[in-house]
């Protein structure tokens, strides 16, 4: 471990001058923006819809969520109790013993790279664990990649544009997004691969390649899988890495006094520390990542939710009024944000960009779960948008609406850019020391997001470049270098490009989800039948 960390520190040395040379990073950022602006504009291109404009990616994400909600007969709600029971371990016996009798056969079946598509998830010896982490660890590993700055800063931005009513549509989008998460994470487990050492490789790359091949579209599946992997790697370096370390230091610097404070200009030092800590975790693989996230995520979400509950408790009489504002704002034809449609779009946009349902990233983490039934983890995964959007985002929104009762926090209809500071101010008005808590929370949110996205990017990297140790450590070293760069440089255009790559992942992923939805339905039917058998 020490040799690997020493090598990491050596890699960071050439970047120190880059970090300290004034203006150089801005020049690089501008040149990068000029070269890639077309891609960013294309991914987030808005199309006219009524009196406002809608990003086309949002239409695909929300449209897909509605389709899967209907196709799986409202699994978002009917499967909720089962999902809770799975996380609690109620069906562990079913999952550990349920399919040991299954024998792979080769007569008249389609194989891809020697794998029988329909039995990929059970191609291990009877009695062995099929995966690397528990349901709870898989859930927290995936949650750590989505719960973060979007819940803190993004909600404030949405409400500033769309008013309190944006909260209602944010909740709706979170609820229907649960069906998308169920679909992609079921397929992630269904088509995952497990090597001779028990390491799991899964995600959209695999269900696009193997699943579409099973449907007679092998060529298309390979192309889509490669496209997804390329964009996932880019997203992991940028939106899942540089943006996180950049914003974590910005929050720390702001709390210490901003541009005039003692930490001003020391982003490079913060970057080195963060890179080392991230490196220690990600070198250990998904088991190490899961062992960290299953402690950090409940802790940081718990602290944040507790603070929100304290504020709401202190203003309990204002809660009914806040909900009234949210409901009225959701349907009232206000001028804010382009009327009802504009308010709806702001809520849907924040939910979609926060929980990433339909992007496919979370299925990579969920694929590592110990189970023989793909749908069991799909059901667990549907809890993710509920926790991320319906609970955390809604509580943030309630605090913002209540504390802004006198208009001192923001003016609805006037977009803000610094969402974290607005949320910090809202909480700080009720709890004087909350800005310190939020600073710690932002750093923890950023850290957990980075280590989760390192796993997503690593899985995509090995899909393209092989599962060798050289490939593994080259990616992890590069990832840590980007942690350092993100904290010490101003890279707005690079981060915009990386975010665009994350949301471009939805194109190949959604194609796969629509084609393979019947496979996910069959897996759900199989698992639910086993639950019924266990009760009889």
- The CATH topology is Amino acid/polyamine transporter I
Q: Report the radius of gyration as a whole number of Å.
A: 23 Å
Number of separate helices: 24
β-strand percent reads: under 5%
Order of helices and strands: HHHEEHHHHEEHHHEEHHHHHHHHHHHHHH
* CATH class membership: Mainly Alpha
Describe the sheet with the most strands.
2 strands, antiparallel
Distance between the termini: 51 Å
Counting structural domains, the number is 1
Q: How many distinct beta strands?
A: 6
Strand order of the largest sheet: 1-2
Describe this structure in words.
With 536 residues, this protein is mostly helical. It has a single domain, classed as Amino acid/polyamine transporter I (Up-down Bundle). It has 24 helices and six strands. The strands form three sheets. The chain has a two-stranded antiparallel sheet with strand order 1-2. Helix 9 crosses helix 20, helix 12 packs antiparallel against helix 23 and helix 14 runs parallel beside helix 19. It is globular.
């Amino acid at each position: 471990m020490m040799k690997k960390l020493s090598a990491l520190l050596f890699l960071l040395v050439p970047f120190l001058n880059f970090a300290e040379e004034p203006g150089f990073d801005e020049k690089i950022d501008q040149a990068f923006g000029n070269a890639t602006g077309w891609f960013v504009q294309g991914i987030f291109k808005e199309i006219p819809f009524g009196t406002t404009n809608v990003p086309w990616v949002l239409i695909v994400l929300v449209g897909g969520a509605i389709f899967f909600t209907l196709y799986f007969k409202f699994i978002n709600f009917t499967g909720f109790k089962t999902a809770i029971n799975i996380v609690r371990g109620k069906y562990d016996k079913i999952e550990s013993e349920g399919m040991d009798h299954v024998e792979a056969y080769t007569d008249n079946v389609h194989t891809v790279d020697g794998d029988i598509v329909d039995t990929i998830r059970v191609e291990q010896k009877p009695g062995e664990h099929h995966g690397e982490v528990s349901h709870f660890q898989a859930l927290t590993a995936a949650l750590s990649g989505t719960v973060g700055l979007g819940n803190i800063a993004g909600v404030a931005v949405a409400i500033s544009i769309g008013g309190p009513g944006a909260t209602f549509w944010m909740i709706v989008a979170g609820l229907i997004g649960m069906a998308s998460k169920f679909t992609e994470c079921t397929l992630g487990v269904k088509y995952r691969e497990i090597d001779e050492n028990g390491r799991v490789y899964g995600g959209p790359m695999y269900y696009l390649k193997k699943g579409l091949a099973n449907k007679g579209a092998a060529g298309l599946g390979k192309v889509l899988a490669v496209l997804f992997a390329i964009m996932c790697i880019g997203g992991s370096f940028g939106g899942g890495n540089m943006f996180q370390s950049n914003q974590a230091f910005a929050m720390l610097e702001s709390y210490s006094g901003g541009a005039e404070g003692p930490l001003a200009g020391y982003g490079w030092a913060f970057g080195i520390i963060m890179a080392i800590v991230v490196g220690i975790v990600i070198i250990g693989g998904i088991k190490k990542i899961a062992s960290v996230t299953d402690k950090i995520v409940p802790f940081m979400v718990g602290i944040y939710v507790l603070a929100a509950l304290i504020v709401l408790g202190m203003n309990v009489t204002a809660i009914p009024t806040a909900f009234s504002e949210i409901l009225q704002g959701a349907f009232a034809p206000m001028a804010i944000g382009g009327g009802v449609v504009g308010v709806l779009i702001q809520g849907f946009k924040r939910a979609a960009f926060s929980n990433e349902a339909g992007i496919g990233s979370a299925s990579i983490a969920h694929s590592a779960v110990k189970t023989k039934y793909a749908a069991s983890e799909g059901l667990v995964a549907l809890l993710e948008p509920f926790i991320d959007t319906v609970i955390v985002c809604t509580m943030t929104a309630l605090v913002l609406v209540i504390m802004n009762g006198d208009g001192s926090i923001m003016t609805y209809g006037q977009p803000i850019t610094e969402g974290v500071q607005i949320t910090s101010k809202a909480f700080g008005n009720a709890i004087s020391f909350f800005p310190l808590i939020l600073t710690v929370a932002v750093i923890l949110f950023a850290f957990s997001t980075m280590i989760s996205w390192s796993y997503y990017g690593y899985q995509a990297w090995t899909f393209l470049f092989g599962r060798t140790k050289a490939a593994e450590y080259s990616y992890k070293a590069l990832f840590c270098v980007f942690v350092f760069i993100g904290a010490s440089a101003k890279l707005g255009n690079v981060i915009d490009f990386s975010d665009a790559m994350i949301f471009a992942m939805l194109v190949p992923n959604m194609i796969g989800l629509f084609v393979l939805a019947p496979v996910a339905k069959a897996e759900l039917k199989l698992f639910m039948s086993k639950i019924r058998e266990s009760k009889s």
